[in-house]
Amino acid sequence: MKSFVFISFIFLIGCQSTQNEDVARFESKCPTMSASEKGSVNATSSPVFRTNPKYPISAARERIEGYVKFEFDISKDGNPINIQVIESYPADTFVYVAKNSLSDWKFSPVIKNKAAILSKCHSVQLDFVFA
Known about the structure:
This protein is of the alpha+beta class. It has a single domain (22-128), classed as TonB (TolA/TonB C-terminal domain). 27% of the residues lie in helices and 32% in strands. A hairpin with a 2-residue loop joins strand 6 and strand 7 (115-117).
C-alpha cells in the first residue's frame, strides 16, 4: 500500500511539472516602479488601431493553441514601445508574430495636464485559438 501511495505521489508530481513545462515566464518590470514612474493610465489608452497576428504555419498545421502576454509603454504619439514578453505558451511558438503585431498597434495618447505623456506599464494578452 505504501509503495502505491509513493508511486501515485511521484506520478502526480511528474504530471504537474510537465504541465507548465512549455510556459515561458519572464520578470515584470512594473511591480518595482513607483506610481510617478508609471505615469498616468486612463481609459483613453485603449488601442485605436490593431492588427491581428498571423498564425504561424507550423502551429496551425499541428493545431497548437496558446498565448503571449506583454508589458509595454505607450509613447506620447500613441505607439507601443519597450515591448517585453512576460509569459508565453507554448514557450516561443507565438512570440515573434505577436510582438510584430503589437508593434504595429496605435493607441490614444495618454493625456495629463492637457499634454500627451509617456505612459508606462500597460499589458495585453494575445490569444491564439482555433474558432
